[in-house]
Amino acid sequence: MVKLLSAMSVACAVVLAACGSGGGASVVVAPVTPPVPPQAEIKPTPVTPVPVLPLTMLHTQGTKWLKADGSQVALKGTNLGNWLINEFWMMGQGSAGIDDQCKLEANFDSRFGYAERQRLMQLLRDNWITTRDWDQMQKFGLNVVRLPFIYSVVEDEMNPRHLRADAWRYLDDAIAQAEKRGMYVILDLHGAVGAQGWEQHSGCANKNLYWSTPAYQDRTVWLWQQVAGRYKDRAAVAGYSVLNEPWGTTADNLAAVVKTLYTAIRAVDPNHVVILPGHNSGNITAYGKPSDQGMSNVAFEMHFYPGLFGWGKTGLQVHKDWLTCSGGSNSGVCEWDNKIKAVDTAFFIGETQPWMGMGLDLGGQVGRASFDTYAKYGWATTAWSWKVVSNGGGQGNGSWGFVTNAAGAAVPAIDFTKAPIADIENLFKLFGTQAYEVHQPLQDWMTSSTAPQPFR
């Protein structure tokens, strides 16, 4: 306001000088446009946490996710990546060619024996996610977690079609921890036996034997029937994501195999949402309209990464274009809204990453805006990922994680082919004790009663 009054005073001085300059020469005074005052900065507004209420069984009807009483629910959450299936970039490792879980386990078998491998993997899992993580998730206001797991967490890989002695240790615990905090769990088979794609995140890079091996597909049917049979009455389980990013086959074959998994699950569990994965080309049309195929209580799943993996440049513009449909009514999220309405099926964005590299405050705003936009369309969303650590630590310009190791809380990169077993144990224990750095602006915006406006 002070700047505006000052500018008006200068304008008046110019006009008065012209009027009193004497009769002869005329003075032309250019019109003065007052400067536009800056828009008020919008800041997150803290709210009182909502009490944890008992969870009710969820289902889908048409495009909506619904509670047992028929009211709509907005699912907003995270993925527990690198816990029950390892991705080495998420824990600051990957040297000496040990860059996926299958290679790590084979290395442990060769160096230390199978029993010791089992002990080391348990040590890693017991420390990657602990009670402090569950408590911190609650502080972000999340109400769902997607739980990626590899098949061998449940099935005894040495004795196929038999459960491990501790088959339910981690899934049971995750569901109990989430339920206690008012959060749902989506169980996600991230790594099927044989691997359903070529990427390391299926557990075994460059394998992709699932689609060409009927025995592997049969074992996956068996696996899902064990899981669904155990949790068929658990309201805290929101649904079953039957195959993560199954890019190793055609869209048509994917649809056929997933229909078999759906039928197998329904034979033991009529209650839970079955989540149908889209193909990497963005193709869900190979399924047809699920209700026309005899499928009910289902949702489609896709993963969206604006600004990453060749999808434009990381920054505000790519998120604005995506979330506001700046290319027209059949672009961005509008295109997917049209697709989902056409098949009259609920939608689940199983992975997305809207804040990485955006700067902390802007990243927090875009993160919240992304969740809000997806919720407006009725879509469930879980961002990737809860915890990602680096060798040096710190959120920097925005890491992949809701939390990371604090700046200076270093994570050593070790050579698993040579490291003494004590060094491996110390690394795995470190994951459970090292200081965290929370993405604070993201937490503030996720729990704010005031919505950000990053695209204004």
Automatic annotation (TrEMBL):
Q: Which domain of life is it from?
A: Bacteria
Quick one: a GO biological-process term for this protein? glucan catabolic process
| Gene3D superfamilies named among the record's database cross-references | Glycosidases
Report any Pfam family annotated for this entry.
Cellulase
Q: Does the keyword Hydrolase apply?
A: yes
Q: What Gene Ontology cellular-component terms does the record carry?
A: cell surface; extracellular region
Question: Can you give the residue ranges of the Glycoside hydrolase family domain?
Answer: 131-387
Which terms does the record give in the GO molecular function aspect?
Answer: beta-glucosidase activity
Keyword terms: Glycosidase, Hydrolase, Signal
Signal sequence residues: 1-17
Name the PANTHER family for this protein: GLUCAN ENDO-1,6-BETA-GLUCOSIDASE B, PUTATIVE-RELATED
UniProt similarity note: Belongs to the glycosyl hydrolase 5 (cellulase A) family.
Under what name is this protein listed? Cellulase family glycosylhydrolase
Identify the species of origin. Answer: Duganella vulcania
Q: What is the lineage of its organism?
A: Bacteria, Pseudomonadati, Pseudomonadota, Betaproteobacteria, Burkholderiales
